[in-house]
Design a protein that fits this description.
alpha+beta; 2 domains; 5-stranded antiparallel sheet; 7 helices; 24% helix; 21% strand; elongated
Length: 268
């Protein structure tokens, strides 16, 4: 998630300086929160509303971190679009759209507010346990999904590290294939692709498959897949800490990506 380079002020019971924001909808949500939209909402104690939410990450006048949730997802979407274009946008939702004010941030936020104390969590006795970004020194489902988020955002940088010939490489090499194909014959990758293929017959919860800016994203128990429908895929596994495994086009991957892309574009 790209952070806005400025802070907008939202008037509530206490001033909140909004540093950045994110969407929480079936089509777009921070993958670190869960494998799908309902799971991401549950992580924040929210009901999965059909229209989704907007998340605002900010600090109060004392520097305490807060995640403020609004049901006005369209307003947050407009703010993000404006910020991406380098434009200013006053992100100030109506008070009656505020669904929750949660202590802490579930994602890392790099933006600082001038003349405000350093970011810190509110006192637990006042606000309860604080949200916190995943510990990147360990590996598990949140870290795997966070890594997939980063690949989705920086797809071209990851793709450029691989030879163009991979687009014609076999997606399902036999066990005795040359060592160069070993990176795409990991049993966990095979399992992930098989489970992703099962989604065509049994559509998963909303948000389990989604597309953003032409990049396809799918998640399942223990795996994440990032791909371009007309190109290759990358798979990350809980069982392979820190590894990003490319999967070549071959004969079967194009059909799988086409099916997933259709599911991503279908109403939930």
């Amino acid at each position: 998630m790209a952070a806005a380079e400025h802070a907008d002020r939202v008037e509530d019971d206490e001033a909140l300086f909004v540093l950045t924001a994110a969407m929480l909808t079936a089509e777009r949500f921070p993958g670190v929160l869960g494998d799908d939209y309902p799971a991401a909402c549950e992580q924040l104690g929210l009901d999965p509303l059909p229209g989704g939410y907007g998340l605002m990450f900010g600090q109060d006048g004392r520097g305490a971190r807060w995640t403020v949730v609004t049901t006005d997802a369209a307003l947050v979407a407009c703010a993000l679009a404006a910020w991406d274009c380098g434009l200013e946008y006053d992100l100030a939702p109506q008070e009656d759209t505020i669904a929750a004010s949660l202590p802490g941030w579930p994602l890392p936020v790099a933006v600082a507010v001038p003349d405000v104390p350093d970011p810190h969590d509110p006192a637990e006795e006042e606000a309860g346990p604080a949200l916190a970004p995943p510990d990147v020194s360990v590996w598990g489902p949140p870290q795997r999904r966070l890594g997939a988020d980063e690949i989705a955002v920086h797809w071209h940088e990851w793709r450029d590290q691989l030879p163009p010939s991979l687009a014609a490489a076999p997606a399902d090499p036999p066990p005795d294939e040359a060592p160069a194909a070993a990176e795409i014959s990991h049993p966990g990758v095979r399992r992930a692709l098989a489970e992703a293929a099962e989604y065509a017959g049994a559509p998963p919860p909303p948000g389990r498959i989604r597309t953003t800016a032409g990049t396809l994203r799918a998640d399942g128990p223990g795996w994440s897949l990032v791909a371009r429908p007309d190109d290759i895929a990358f798979v990350l596994l809980d069982e392979a800490p820190g590894e990003v495994m490319p999967v070549g086009r071959g004969e079967s991957l194009p059909q799988l990506l086409e099916a997933l892309d259709k599911l991503a574009g279908s109403p939930s």
